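Membrane protein
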Amino acid sequence: MDPANAGRLKQIALTYKMTRKADKKIGLVLGAVGIGTLAVFLAIGFLLGHPVYLGIFGLLIALLATAIVFGRRAERAAFGQMEGQPGAAAAVLDNIGRGWTTTPAVAMNRSQDVVHRAVGKAGIVLVAEGNPNRVKSLLAAEKKKMNRIVADVPVHDVIVGEGEGQVELKKLRTTLLKFPRVLTGPQVTATTDRLRAMGDLLSNMPVPKGPMPKGMRMPKGR
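Predicted structure tokens:
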């Protein structure tokens, strides 16, 4: 067997096992979809006098329908397992697709609320996960910073959650893709480079050596 095909089958088997942990009925559902679809085409084939032709065609459609249902239930199970886990939004952003550059944890407070950044043709999207009341200040500060660095680029903000005005984790990718595309490819690259350069500049700033001056306090986390 081709190593590539063997690896693909192994990946499918692994995905099925992981999905089955969260979706106990996955086997029954896939079986019902596949057999049901094939049975419908066979029945039509016998009625029209072409059971072999429609049987083969039905088998192909049954495999396709099974794959689609499997993909959707696997995705739903994966989101269900990630829901509420720290860094779940960053994992979704990493798989948003071509044309997007993501940077996880561009801002964080002491309570581990975090803001991630994605840059694409829609501009800059700040995605926060954590306590809705606390992340608003994080978002506001990060949005203000973005407006100073790249004033000509639109900045959107999203809070991941299930409350009012929030976006569910499973709808995060779709939400980002629905934002209007206002930047060209070169503009996206220029914006990404500018933000990366600014990040490198901040991370390479010299830290004062020696003891902390008497009476000086550490700044509070945002």
